[in-house]
Design a protein that fits this description.
Elements (H helix, E strand, L loop, with lengths): L8 E6 L2 E7 L13 E9 L2 E10 L14
Antiparallel strand pairs: 1-2, 1-3, 3-4
């Protein structure tokens, strides 16, 4: 997440199901290892929210960089 993203909770969802969740570190980065599919990413920190942002992984081992802005 950009902005005040350090300490944000980031969720990765497949449909309405949360499949991964983590809290960003001081570098504001996050990462998940998941199977190919269509996912959405959301982020929250206090009253700030970001997303949902769509992410599509087409092959095992895909790497995608996706920023999520907190507003």
């Amino acid at each position: 997440p950009s902005g005040s993203g350090a300490g944000a909770t980031v969720q990765l969802k497949l449909g309405s199901t949360v499949v991964r969740e983590m809290v960003t570190g001081s570098d504001r980065r996050y990462g998940f290892w998941v199977a190919p599919g269509s996912y959405t990413v959301t982020a929250t920190k206090g009253t700030l929210t970001g997303g949902p942002v769509s992410v599509v992984l087409t092959s095992p081992g895909d790497t995608i960089q996706q920023n999520v802005t907190l507003n």
